[in-house]
């Protein structure tokens, strides 16, 4: 697999994560409403993006480490099992941590975002994209020789590319989360939050399960 599809997929997943109120924009809006300042919304977004990136990057690093000692097929089934299992867990227990107070700084928001992204399994949802870039087909061209087609771009075996991938994903998350936060803050207030939260809990769990199925079929 080569071309632009991994980058578009990472950007799209970032956008999907950005729409989810549990991924940060809800907290940014709440801070803005509390302080009655638009700037409070904007100031909350960078640390939220940093925390999200750290959580996703940690998952990518762990998958890369496991990949170094586990065959591709085994890694694929492990990832699929974890994704489906975590998706089912999210269906059964869709609760959100409420440990943090409303007066928070950059470090507090970063930690909060890291914990929320980790609790939602945000990084796990990127695993099929990374594994997809590893998938290779070996074509026999001569006795004792093989031609490898299909990989083209192996994100897991290049720390530089893996870092760029996390950045691309985070940009998608930040841009969409920022747009949603400003629309809600300026136009909608908090009237739609209860309904949106429920819908995205369900969509998130289904997306995790679907990601596991996709990973199993790679």
Could you explain how this protein is built, in words?
This protein has helices at 5-19, 25-35, 38-67, 72-92, 106-120, 127-132, 159-188, 193-217, and strands at residues 137-142, 145-149. With 218 residues, it is mostly helical. It has one domain (5-217). Strands 1-2 form a two-stranded antiparallel sheet. Helix 1 runs parallel beside helix 7, helix 2 packs antiparallel against helix 3 (38-67) and helix 4 packs antiparallel against helix 8. The N and C termini lie close together (11 Å).
Number of strands: 2
Quickly count the helices: 8
Shape: globular
Low-confidence stretches: 97-102, 136-151
Structural domain tally: 1
The level of helicity is over 70%
Rounded mean pLDDT score: 77
Rg on CA atoms, Å: 19 Å
Structural class: mainly alpha
Write the layout of secondary structure elements.
Elements: H1 5-19, H2 25-35, H3 38-67, H4 72-92, H5 106-120, H6 127-132, E1 137-142, E2 145-149, H7 159-188, H8 193-217
Antiparallel strand pairs: 1-2
Helix pairs in contact: 1-7, 2-3, 2-7, 3-5, 3-7, 4-8
Quickly describe the structure.
The chain has 218 residues and is mainly α.
Name its key features.
globular, 2 strands, 8 helices, mainly alpha, 70% helix, single chain, 5% strand, two-stranded antiparallel sheet, 218 residues
């Amino acid at each position: 697999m080569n071309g632009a599809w991994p980058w578009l997929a990472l950007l799209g997943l970032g956008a999907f994560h950005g729409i989810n109120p549990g991924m940060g924009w809800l907290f940014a809006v709440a801070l803005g409403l509390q302080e009655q300042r638009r700037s409070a919304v904007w100031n909350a977004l960078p640390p939220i993006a940093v925390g999200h990136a750290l959580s996703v990057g940690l998952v990518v690093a762990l998958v890369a480490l496991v990949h170094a000692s586990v065959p591709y097929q085994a890694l694929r089934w492990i990832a699929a099992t974890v994704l489906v299992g975590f998706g089912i867990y999210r269906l059964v227990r869709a609760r959100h941590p409420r440990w943090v107070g409303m007066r928070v700084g950059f470090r507090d928001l970063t930690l909060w975002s890291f914990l929320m992204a980790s609790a939602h399994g945000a990084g796990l949802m990127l695993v099929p994209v990374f594994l997809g870039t590893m998938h290779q087909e070996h074509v026999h061209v001569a006795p004792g020789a093989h031609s490898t087609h299909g990989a083209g771009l192996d994100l897991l075996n290049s720390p530089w590319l893996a870092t760029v991938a996390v950045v691309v994903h985070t940009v998608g998350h930040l841009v969409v989360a920022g747009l949603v936060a400003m629309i809600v803050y300026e136009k909608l207030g908090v009237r739609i939050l209860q309904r949106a939260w429920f819908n995205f809990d369900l969509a998130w769990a289904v997306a995790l399960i679907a990601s596991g199925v996709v990973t199993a079929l790679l």
